[in-house]
Amino acid sequence: MISNIFLENLKRLIPAENIKLQEPMNQHTTFRTGGVADCFLTVQNGEQLRKLIPYFRETEHDFFVLGHGSNLLVSDEGYRGIMLRLAGELAQIRVCGERIHAGAGASMARAARAACEHGLTGLEFASGIPGSIGGGVVMNAGAYDGEMSQVVETVTVMDMEGNLLELDHDSMEFGYRDSAIKNRPYIVLEACFHCKPGDPEKIAAYMEELAARRREKQPLEYPSAGSTFKRPAGYFAGKLIMDAGLRGYSVGDAQVSEKHCGFIINRGNAASSDINRLIETVQQQVEEKFDVKLEPEVIRVGRF
Predict the structure, then answer these.
(1) Active-site residue among 23, 124, 190, 297?
(2) Are 255 and 272 in contact (CB under 8 A)?
(3) Is 107 noted as a catalytic residue in this protein?
(4) Of residues 177, 179, 224, 272, which has the active-site annotation?
(5) Which DSSP state fits 157?
(6) Angle (CA) 108 229 207, round 5°
(7) How far is CA 240 from the centre of its chain?
(8) Helix, strand, coil shares of the chain as percentages rounded to 5?
(9) pLDDT band at residue 1, thresholds of 50, 70 and 90?
């Protein structure tokens, strides 16, 4: 619960208009599901964040840094803590020569467009990924043979004491949908990408080609979190799910997409509990039939 004393102290750290109570999380996730968060804060710069994080720890308030909600499943009961959205200075993009400095709150698609506009190649794969730079860096997001690890040069993070650290590429320890930050108490503030010069027209054409492939093969007309499961070694998650006979299988309005079995979609009125139950059913059926454990890419927040 958010006490009046806690709330008044928050107003000394960030503007009151950036504080919302009982915020519906279905407005902030691409699944379009989830209950309310006790408190929802929009953080405009690193200095605000530097003051907030130690205060949360001091008062023992749980918090979660929200990207664009594209890889998130929030419980129907909501989140009994504080959601942080990074905006303002923390969502800016600057291009300096062959380097793109992108704030954690910026979208990967916007960073890809900025690269294209400045004749820089390397970020085309990110043009259709709906997540934020921060989330993309943490999970080493990728698509169509490209991933963040191929272009990240440095990442600026904040620790739980409010200190700034700069991690180089090797320190990030990138793996498949993984990075060192996943298991460390760091908050991504900015990433620096090193791209290569290219022809803006060719870059734009390739981005449009990727967009067309997505429209053709992915169920973009429905709310989803993109690929629901990580690719298991030696297999494709969508093929395993299809071969398990689960194409179109549904729990409530949550459904394994008939267009791409690697996607779980919300056909309109799914609850987070429906989606979670469907994820667990798919995992169980695939393991029983093929002895392969599917690991969700989706992050669950709250009680399930």
Answers:
(1) 297
(2) no
(3) no
(4) 177
(5) E
(6) 30
(7) 24
(8) 35, 30, 35
(9) confident
Coil, helix or strand for 254? strand
> CB neighbours (10 Å) of residue 212?
10
12 catalytic residue (yes or no): no
- The beta-strand segments (E) located in 148-186 are 152-158, 164-168
> In which residue are the tokens 């994820």 written?
279
* DSSP class per residue in 61-106: --EEEE-SSTTEEE-TT-EEEEEEEE-GGGG-EEEETTEEEEETTS
Half-sphere exposure (CA, 13 Å, Cβ side) for 104? 26
Instruction: Say which amino acid occupies 229.
Output: F
> Which residue's entry shows tokens 């080493």?
140
- Give the CA distances from residue 291 to residues 15, 70, 76, 285, 294, in Å, rounded to whole numbers and listed in that order: 53, 29, 31, 9, 10
Report pTM: 0.93
pLDDT tens track for 50-102: 999 999 999 999 999 999 999 999 999 999 999 999 999 999 999 999 999 99
As given in the structure block, the two tokens for residue 21 are: 């109570």
To the query of whether residue 273 is one of the catalytic residues in this protein, the response is: no
Token pair listed for 203:
């870059």
Determine whether 303 is exposed, middle or buried from the number of CB atoms within 10 Å of its CB (0-12, 13-18, 19+). Answer: exposed
Q: Residues 107, 227, 257, 272: which is the catalytic one?
A: 227
Judge residue 281's burial from the number of C-beta atoms within 10 Å of its C-beta, 0-12 exposed, 13-18 middle, 19 or more buried. middle
Convert the pLDDT of each residue in 181-240 to its tens digit. Answer: 988 999 999 999 999 999 999 999 999 999 999 999 999 999 999 999 999 999 999 999
